[in-house]
Design brief:
By secondary structure, this protein is of the alpha+beta class. The chain is built from nine helices and 16 strands. The protein starts with a strand and ends with a helix.
Length: 327
């Protein structure tokens, strides 16, 4: 059990939780900033968490929900106020409605997580500041303290699981709900390098080619919100061909962007693609949350070998673009 202490200061309206772990600070930090990892311990036993958004940069947001034994849900929303890479982050923490928006009928809190090295490994100290004594007592009565203790009791297994989150793993797929999919991969390069490789047309053409034998002929990149983009490919001999187009609807360089995507000439609703880049040990964690019109469309597209094609491109990005930059 990693929990060291829980202290409540009624005068300062704070609750401070300290936990120690036999791992380096970087390993502990990454467990919090990687959505695949934090959702394995953030919810208490019986209430696993699912993070549909996790943008660890100043101004970023995280959306998550915890699912109970009978399928009931409790949603949460973080707004990142400050991030000191590898050392601390502060969020405005609140309850979320079903659509992910802030539930203004419930209290919001300020939470600061600090990470430090210890003789035996590392320590995380979380300080939650409540808006009033009444709201502190309300949330404690709702089980916040016990739920946090139980949740942190799951962290040892997550931190010990190095294999599932190693930097040399290929792109992985996780289904979220009925209509979403999250593809993640650690790219060996900085956040700035990976962002640039996604936004400079000549670089994009070098790596975003999918399986061997194809070339990217059009890489029109959207630079500003509201701009449209277009991507086209053909076989090396010029036969066949397909493409995608869409609109840039949100951008926070170099950490996050949201686009729509539809196959050129095909009817139907576009997907919504949310790209997030987060620095982690070994490089940059690239995470794409894709929202499909329905479950059947999601399955149809995944059955095309989409994730395998993405992995081929990401491996080429490391080898032919970022490898050249680092040389």
């Amino acid at each position: 059990m990693p929990l060291t202490s829980v202290e409540k200061d009624l005068d300062a309206l704070t609750m401070t939780i300290t936990a120690d772990f036999p791992v380096p600070v970087r390993r502990l930090w990454d467990a919090y900033v990687d959505p695949r990892q934090i959702e394995r311990f953030w919810g208490p036993p019986g209430w696993p968490a699912t993070f549909t958004r996790h943008d660890v940069f100043p101004g970023g947001y995280s959306n998550y929900y915890m699912t109970g034994p009978d399928g009931e849900r409790s949603g949460g929303l973080w707004h990142f106020q400050a991030v000191d890479e590898g050392r601390s982050f502060t969020v405005r923490d609140g309850f979320a409605r079903e659509d992910g928006s802030l539930n203004t009928d419930m209290p919001t809190m300020l939470m600061t997580f600090s990470f430090e090295e210890t003789p035996g490994g590392s320590r995380v100290v979380s300080v939650t500041t409540f808006p009033s004594l009444e709201e502190l007592e309300q949330l404690i009565e709702m089980g916040m303290e016990e739920g946090t203790k139980e949740a942190m009791g799951q962290m040892d297994d997550v931190l010990a699981d190095l294999q599932s989150f190693a930097a040399d793993l290929p792109a992985s797929l996780q289904l979220i709900g009925d209509t979403q999919a999250r593809v993640t991969r650690v790219i060996r390069g900085t956040v700035e390098q990976v962002w640039r490789a996604h936004h400079e047309p000549e670089l994009v053409k070098q790596w975003l080619k999918g399986p061997d034998g194809w070339v990217m002929t059009v890489a029109d990149v959207a630079q500003n919100v509201g701009d449209r983009y277009r991507q086209e490919w053909t076989r090396e001999d010029g036969s066949d061909g397909f493409g995608f187009e869409g609109e840039l609807i949100e951008s926070a360089s170099p950490h996050r962007e949201v686009t729509t995507e539809a196959m050129i000439g095909m009817p139907g609703e576009p997907t919504r693609n949310e790209l997030t880049l987060t620095p982690v040990e070994g490089g940059t964690l690239l995470s794409i949350v894709i929202t499909y019109p329905d479950a059947d469309t999601r399955q149809m597209i995944l059955d095309t070998g989409m994730v395998e094609g993405m992995e081929t491109s990401y491996a080429r990005l490391e080898r032919e673009v970022l490898g050249a930059v680092s040389a």
